[in-house]
Amino acid sequence: MSSSKLLRGTFILTGGVFLSRILGLIYVFPFYQLVGKQGGALYSYGYVPYTLFISIATMGVPLAVSKFVSKYNALGEYAIGRKLFRSGIMLMAVTGFLAWLILYMSAPLLAPFVVNDDGHGNSIADVTSVIRAVSFALLLVPMMSLIRGFFQGYESMGPTALSQVVEQLVRIVFLLAGSYIVLRIFDGSLVTAIQVATFAAFIGAVGGLAVLFMYWFKRKSFLDELLKQDRGTIHMSLTEMYKELIAYAAPFAFVGLAMPLYQLIDQFTFNKAMASIGLGAISEDAYGIFNVWAQKLVIIPVTLATSFSLTLIPTITKAYVKGESKRLRKYLNDTFQVVMFITLPAVIGMALLSEYVYAAFYSYDPLGTEVLRAYAPTAIFFALFSVTAAILQGINKQKFTVISLTIGLLFKLLFNYILIVSFETVGAILATTIGYALSVGLNLWVIHRYTNYRYHFVAKRVLFMGILTTMMCAVVWPIVKLLDRFLHYNGSMIQSVIIVACGGGIGAAVYFYLSKRSNLLYALFGNRFSFLRKKEKKAVS
Question: Which UniProt keywords apply (predicted)?
Answer without folding.
Answer: Cell membrane, Membrane, Transmembrane, Transmembrane helix
